Amino acid sequence: MNEHITPWLKLRARWMLQIRRSCERERIAEQQMAVRRTMSWMAVAALAVLLPAVTQAAPGYQSNSLWGGTPEWGGGRQTIPFSTKYKPGEIIVSFGDRRLYFIEAPGKAISYPIAVPREQSRWEGVTNVSMKKENPSWTPTPEMLRENPKLPPWVPGGHPMNPLGVRALYLGSSLYRIHGTDAPWTIGQAVSRGCIRMYNEDVIHLYNRVPVGTKVTVTWDRFTTTAQADPTERRTARADRATR
């Protein structure tokens, strides 16, 4: 009897040892992944803190020359002449121009640089602002998590790495929003999954002018405008950045 039991016990012991080693390897791998993830988050958070200090110290610094919003796409925030077919208070988002236009008065608009959707995320239509939020929290969609499983499941409002930035205007019943960003270098580029990104200082500027119910036209059409930067707005924008 013992002759039959002993080999079985030895086999069982080997199995248990292999299981323990496998569990230990998985535990170590999970710890290493957690450490790498934490270090990545800390590095980005540190960058978010350090970059404003560096750029504010640079003589003649302007965010639109460092991070998107380049002259190719109309430069920074401007007041421009615009088509009189649109009524004051309306928003026109031109993915073709990579600009958002807020109609301030008949024939006059405030033009903001934006980041637009990737080719596979293109859309257009007429909607309205259904909700507004200050310091919104962010939850990735299932599609985003499939594309990037390393995304956090939730980011609280006000966090320096919140992709929605400091303000959000929700569009109709869709998942699309006009919002700020934690990645200002993407402004002027085609990078989003359908939302319209703005500089945080620009989305605050727009947010205070837009009530719930505002009509929003989203199009790929381009608009011919003669852009004239408002010197007062430019000085105000510089002062705003200098105090941040």
List the helices and strands and how they pair.
Blueprint: H1 2-57, H2 63-66, E1 78-81, E2 91-94, E3 99-105, E4 108-113, E5 116-117, E6 125-134, H3 142-147, E7 167-171, E8 177-179, E9 190-192, E10 196-197, H4 200-207, E11 215-219, H5 231-242
Q: Keyphrases for this structure?
A:
disordered C terminus; 2 domains; two-stranded parallel sheet; 244 residues; alpha/beta; nine-stranded mixed β-sheet; single chain; L,D-transpeptidase catalytic domain-like; 21% strand; 35% helix
Summarize the structure in words.
The structure is a single chain. This protein has 244 residues and is α/β, with parallel strands linked by helices. The chain folds into 2 domains: 1-57; 66-242, L,D-transpeptidase catalytic domain-like. It is built from 5 helices and 11 strands; from the N terminus they run ααββββββαββββαβα. The strands form 2 sheets. The protein has a 9-stranded mixed beta sheet with strand order 1-4-3-2-11-6-7-8-10, with helices on one face. It has a two-stranded parallel ribbon with strand order 5-9. The model is unreliable at 43-68 and 226-244 (pLDDT under 50).
